[in-house]
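seq as requested:
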Amino acid sequence: MTQAQTKLVRVVTAGSVDDGKSTLIGRILHDSQALMSDQVDALSNARFSRAEEGDLDLSFVTDGLESEREQGITIDVAYRYFATPQTSFIVIDAPGHEQYTRNMVTGASNADVAIVLVDASRLHQGALKVQTRRHATIAHLLGLKVVFAVNKMDLVNWSQKVFLEVEESLKRLSRSLGITNAAIVPINARSGDNVVSKSPAASWYDGSSLLDILQSQGEGTDLSELPFRFSIQRVVRVDGHTIEAQRGYAGRIASGQIAIGDEVFVGPHRRPTKIVRIETYDQSLDRAEAGQSVTLYTEDEVDAARGDLLTRGEANYAKRVTADLCWLDDQVWDPRRRYIVQQGTSSILSRIENVLHIRDMRDLSEVRGDQALKLNDIALVQLQTQTPILADLFQDNPKTGAFILIDPDTNQTAAAGMIRGVA
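struct tokens:
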């Protein structure tokens, strides 16, 4: 990264099947000269190519599995990297098929910005597909900035009328979700019109190219500026049973900063202690911050184990929280079942006490939750836990305000959750 590249933006592509997500990423990488010559040669000789004679099937840049190329759908999440003089990008290609919504949630959870693609040629009077609405909803719930890319405009002869119909539908969608200032740009990912640079094909469009819009987006939350949160992965003992024996707490700093001499609190009972040493695998530090894996030593032998939290600043714990859930399990929710809340390294038995509402993906209305949660449902629930969990709100701290629910019988991830309040 050069000195001028002062920010990193993580972008996930979303939208329905065949809206052109993989092709768009391939086009951005190709036109920004982020592809090596051997990659371009491989695209020219690729099996199962759907491109016209002499053209490259740019979707293959991210669709790395042969099964993906053969079926023409994205299955797995793919990560690609490129940079402009102003910005470095991590681009995440997420599946559009409803069956792989869980993969899309995984990709979006690591992003700052979501590009939600819409195929202009397959909509009737601007009516949006259910999966487009679902992906936009997930992106918004995850706190991402949303950019709508209206793709395949060449198939509607770059009709301004068609674009305006789609644009109005996307504005209605944005209003219903509470998305503000969403950019909406007409593009043709296959040929590159309005992707990296403006195209004369849409002389009526006076906005910026998609890449310029992405470069104007700010970075995501600076986790080091948030309150200190450290989830213990392992307790280590140094010098065995000698008189100098010490216990250290190894893990990854989820957010905030820590320095020698800082006071921290252990778990929901907030037992105080002070940090006396900070170690990595090869050196001692005076200070560490979010993202670093360290071992922390305290001035006294506190009773802490794997799954316990060390915090600084205000930290609320609760046994009941309200949370948005994306249901990811093929098995429907059974109100009698117990699930494990996995938050950081802590695993706590819980149950869904009440479903407040489920979103109807056809019109995004909130339907009373008197029915079972099923695959791909998005709902607001009340969750009760056996012991208190850290109740950081997701919008305040996306690292600790998120969790997953695990079915203890099948070990499957049942849902991804975001804490919205204390019930």
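DSSP finds seven helices and 22 strands in the chain.
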